[in-house]
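Task card 7
Instruction: Convert sequence to structure tokens.
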Amino acid sequence: MALNYAEQWSPELLEILMQGTLTSPFVTSNVRWLDAKTFHFTQMSTSGYKNHSREGGWNKGTYAQTDVPYTLTHDRDVEFMVDKADVDETNATASIQNISRVFEQTWVVPETDALFFSKVAQAAQKTEGYHGSTAASTYTKAKVFGMLKDILAKGKLRRYKANGSLIMYVTSQIMDALEQSTEFTRKIEMTQIAEGGMGIETRVTEIDGVPIMEVIDDERFYDAFDWEPEGGGFAPLKKKEAVTGAHKINVLVACGQTCKTVPKINSIYYFEPGGHTKGDGYLYQNRSFSDVFVFPNGRDGKIDSIYVDVDTTEVA
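Output:
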């Protein structure tokens, strides 16, 4: 652990220029927990009309009700201990407040997005007709607008597009191509997203009423992650024997009605020196227990509100 024991310095940390969380619209707290890590979604379907007979009688319909359990699996934690002497000798730059701020900006926010993007991508890849694999170089300025339009026309996405519940995420390369497209006439704007008092600019536009958001920090934009790399955090899953490597996501479409990041525990503890038994210093502990789920529609129990297109190259 390296600390900066400087003789003269500014106590301010350099600002961390990272893109803020892009998937916050999908976070929900509207889940009733019954002292467990599993919650239940009740799915119901019914049969439809049949022709009426004027000779009397009614057509008998049927209904089915299914209880679908959803269990959280993404349980994460970390703690930092800062010796009292280190706080004093680094002019308080090595303080719990600074450590926690850097941790939130560089790991918590990106991981929230990475979990969402990868889980939605994996759900789409298991659903016939709702995934593709395209070389990133194919998204040229001459083709990109038509390709994105085609994606929004896949399967039943039109249904969700019509009620304004879809969001499309794209790479910077695709947003660049869209900005140069002669077919695309909508304005692409730089929008500021405030995270912790820091403004991050990202390009946002729309196609057929669907917001298109640029994912600038693309290390979070893969379809699979290693959640236990050496040193902690997360990293794109590398190809190994019998393990398929992650693919960079080109385009991901998600629906606010059916895609949810569900938090159960978000615990942060802070202990002054003497308030714990781990040493003479300040202790910070952080635990996050959450997961991402894609729910089926309420008509026939099928997943039809998401789409992913990934690059053809695996992470080696």
